[in-house]
């Protein structure tokens, strides 16, 4: 019951409307005052939930770090990790390009955080990932690319209600791995929505070591293994003729791996060794890729513990009650926060849906696209990505505007790049893993800055 005092009536009605989902809480309700163990910073942070269904049963969790300086003049960047089913909070924000990284009982600054150049929005998607949840657990079954893209679009629409000052801001979407599906499909929905109501000021997308075309991406793994000395000539031959990787993955998800593929993969696994991280073949195991975020792309390795050195610190930090309280987060239907969802049942056959065609549509609509590759990743190797971008440019009739060349970070080669039609770009990050901002943070920041500014990668030092 509301009291008869006018101020109390106003407050009570507002609360009731909020509970009904008719109005939304102001950003002050989701501002982070201070994360436990956090160094002092000058920028603002926010986190919380956005409902994505009309019954308010499904909510996606976000973490938002405004730019370190001049936030009002910097673009908005939505970051998505892949999996499918892995956390943009734990992987992207706390282990790759966010402002902090867990260390011991607290946090340390990431001096190459991407919020030096942009306002960074990290989204735990789809529902069932991280702190994102559905009060009806049946919603975790049969989640697919179409559902994920739809929910991500609804999230952004409702997020702009909470943060109206960002509604007309330049917007970029960046992601890695299976976000090669998430990002283009979301961007396509944005453009369709804009034809009815101009809401999204989309200025470009960037995709890191992305799944774009199942067979090309997966089958480039054999050549990568062989060229880096991980497999023998004999194994390379059977891995490219008797049973290639795309066939093996298809059989695995259909629940019936043939004896011939089982034999080939056993041979490949023995030679590559379980003590070499496939996400960066040059790093020692303890310093391997941040999380098993692409574990579904590596079915034979699902049971392995990957990089406990880094993962444990993040998992422990995000499972602390004081941290969850500071983040305005809660666990619904699960006992612990995990880097990759244990409750989500994703339609893995969507892996075989090519999204390079969607990328082509975006380019034709005038949306700049950057595909970049950490060049030490064997999961989605650079050779597959480079081939797909080149084929797409040829199909669209785009001429080379920046010939294949090196680019620099300080006085060292940061990688290689090529640009087509001043709108479609490919770049490598030298020495980087599948999660490039983790293993090569400074070079990744140089690439990110050039992407936001629409400039080719630095040609000189």
UniProtKB/TrEMBL annotation:
Q: Keywords in UniProt for this one?
A: Carboxypeptidase, Disulfide bond, Glycoprotein, Hydrolase, Protease, Secreted, Signal
Q: Which InterPro entries match?
A: AB_hydrolase_fold, Peptidase_S10, Ser_caboxypep_his_AS, Ser_caboxypep_ser_AS
Q: Which Pfam families match?
A: Peptidase_S10
Under which EC number(s) is this enzyme classified? 3.4.16.-
Q: Does the keyword Signal apply?
A: yes
Q: Which PANTHER family match?
A: SERINE CARBOXYPEPTIDASE-LIKE 46, SERINE PROTEASE FAMILY S10 SERINE CARBOXYPEPTIDASE
The protein, known as: Carboxypeptidase
The organism is Vigna radiata var. radiata (Mung bean)
Chain's gene name: LOC106758710
